[in-house]
Amino acid sequence: MPRLGPMPSGGTRLILLGTAGGPRPVVARSAPAQVLLIDEVPYVVDCGEGVAHQLVRAGIPPRTVRHVLLTHHHSDHNLDYGNLLYLAWATGLQTPVDTYGPPPLAAMTRQFLALHDYDLRARMADEGRPPLGPLVQVHELSQPGVVLETAQVRVTAALVHHPPVEPAFAFRFDAPDRSIVISGDTTPTPSLIALAQGADVLVHEVMYAPAIPRLLGLSPNAARLREHLLASHTTLEQVGQVATAAGVRTLVLSHFVPSDDPQVTDDLWRTGAQQHFAGEIIVGRDLLVI
């Protein structure tokens, strides 16, 4: 069952750290991010702005993060990638962190370290900290397949359709007690449906198309933005169809577009998805534990 607040340790838990869609800051929700705790080892998927603070709010010290995965390189998903690594280091990181994502992840990592080189060197000299760079092990992903495999979990990536960003990935986590799929940003995509076949939980982005005109308002580029949203995301009706085609047990709605429209209520999100999906539907909220 979903809940806010602490859960018993052990097994596999999913915590929604941020459930907003897009780079625009809003009050109601934080930027896209989630963490899976598998036998208490954190696997962070996407690093929207504020991800380290959300980890702390969820009771997870950033220094305990061992794996970071990015679905794609839109800023709402990667803006705090470097900051998460830095803040883990600033709070006591001593062990390697493996990071996974599309190119240019290696260049991004180098550039972040170069940007903060003065501070890093100052703190190493003044506070006795180890160098951060050697602790970050970067794995660039260009093709689908198994991303990592340990005794606790197998993580598999699938390419999804999120034009014009290429490549963009969804990730499936198969742990001993459950399977969880994170869609990333995507249109309804056969490869995602195949990846999610029979999964216990599918966390999927969602967009309520009738509210897009209110979201865009009088923006001078409203027509182009609307075109992009409709061409690269999944509508509320479609997300239920995807979950049914994949045969998942539980559908978790997240990455909401719009994220803060008072006319688009939780009941509306839920009933819209129910039109095409008969399983359990969870309307995501920041810091919700599943």
Blueprint (SSEs and pairs):
Blueprint lengths: L2 E2 L7 E7 L14 E6 L2 E5 L5 H7 L9 E3 L5 H4 L2 H10 L6 E5 L3 H11 L1 H11 L8 E5 L4 E5 L4 E6 L9 E6 L4 E4 L7 H6 L5 E7 L4 H5 L5 H11 L3 H11 L3 E8 L8 H9 L5 E4 L4 E2 L1
Helix pairs in contact: 9-10
End-to-end CA span: 6 Å
What would CATH call the architecture? 4-Layer Sandwich
Number of helical segments?
10
- Beta-strand portion reads 25-35%
Structural overview:
The chain has a single domain (about 5-285), classed as Metallo-beta-lactamase, Chain A, CATH 3.60.15.10. By secondary structure, it is α/β, with parallel strands linked by helices. The model has no long low-confidence stretch (mean pLDDT about 95). About 30% of the residues lie in helices and about 25% in strands. It is globular, with a radius of gyration of 18 Å. It contains 10 helices and 15 strands. The strands form 2 sheets. It has an 8-stranded mixed sheet with strand order 1-15-2-3-4-5-6-7. It has a 7-stranded mixed sheet with strand order 8-9-10-11-12-13-14. The protein has helices at about 50-55, 75-80, 80-90, 105-115, 115-125, 190-195, 210-215, 220-230, 235-245, 265-275, and strands at about 5, 10-20, 35-40, 40-45, 65-70, 95-100, 135-140, 145-150, 155-160, 170-175, 180, 200-205, 250-255, 280-285, 290. Strand 10 and strand 11 form a beta hairpin. Helix 9 crosses helix 10 (about 265-275).
